[in-house]
Amino acid sequence: MKWKQIIIFYMAMALNASCSIGYKPLCNPTEHNLEDSIFQPLWSRSDIFVLPNEYEPMIIGDSTRVFVAGLDSTHGLPFIFALDSQTGNVIWKQESEVSVSMLATSTNVFVGEIDRIKIYDPETGVLFRDTYIPVGIILLRYADEKNIYAVTGHGRWLTYDINSGQVDLSEPDVYLPLFIENGIEYRADFEGFKAVDAKTKVILWKYQLNEEINTQPIFLAQSIIFETGADNIYVLDKNEGTLIWRSQARIISNVAVDDSRVFFLTSEGRLSVLDVNTGSVIHSLEFSATPFQVSTADSSIGGYYVRMNPQTKELIVSLGDTCQVMAVEFDRP
After folding, report:
1. Nearest 5°: phi and psi at 10?
2. What is the pTM of this model?
3. Which CATH number does 5-330 carry?
């Protein structure tokens, strides 16, 4: 897979320019219905325009907080918001440039921007470090205890030392790793999705794929989950590269998972829940009798995202056309 750095670059630049002149986001005042016997609403708010991003979710979280990259819907200014996951109340917000990607751990919130990586304290919102790295777009992939790993708009793999701020950059490459674990690089290129020995570059397994991967795959202990531009969700065996299941849907959001389920929004106005092991439909919640609205040349609609808290089993949902950010509990095991 080639990284769509040119598209993302212009998207981010356009958002940045519009924010700088007091951009007023579009929010439909008619909120979507939350009534459902399986999903129990916890809270909902409609005052944050969550930034739309086709490739990176702009809602992330830790065990007690939800972090949102968005605009204050009153003034149109960009902020990083921290919300209490139980109540939806704002814990803190920090004015920022338009974010391109985000990661969160129990000790840090990482934000990738154009030429910058910022690290915030998750409890207070204090900016711990702001590092200038002149590489264009910075897409954060994942983090461990020592490093952040990212890809750049210049086609380079970036390793960022969290404690020192030291940066290590690879040579430019058209196809960069999606994830590196236990000496194995997981990649997607014109041949398909593959696992490669990080040292010898020997291909350990390959799954033929003629579709472009939209977002960062989800790497679980035994499987890999990803969505494609052809509106397919794939689940591969992580050790063998064989297909476990595939499902087609008109996906409008990212994909979120817990230990047994897969969650995503569809353009028809539904929240779908699939069994993570089989792909069978567990439940489908209709938020709207009409399709969700999307951005046009004349209007800008917020982002559609889902985020599952594996500790509390709360599902955070962003519905872009109404600027709703909400939390629901899912009652079915």
Report:
1. -70, -35
2. 0.88
3. 2.130.10.10
